[in-house]
Amino acid sequence: MDKMGILAAAHQQGDVEYNANRISFYPDYGVTTQKMRRLFVKMKRKLRNCGKAYALLPLARLQLDLQGKRHYFKLAEKAMQFL
Hints:
Elements lengths: L2 H11 L2 E3 L2 E3 L7 H8 L2 H10 L2 E5 L3 E6 L2 E5 L2 H7 L1
Antiparallel strand pairs: 1-2, 3-4, 4-5
């Protein structure tokens, strides 16, 4: 099974455990994408503390659900200004 097959199987299975330890599976991101995603760390922390619904989508796009509307941001600074 290739890595995408493993990711899909893990997603379908739900929680995966080995020796009573939970195992998480994440897609591989290139260095550039990792750096872009890292820029949203402070923003994600702020959203969690406020109890806001959000998702960090592939290729470092932040999805924010606020007052019944869905907003997307490619830049963390723009998301911070929006809040």
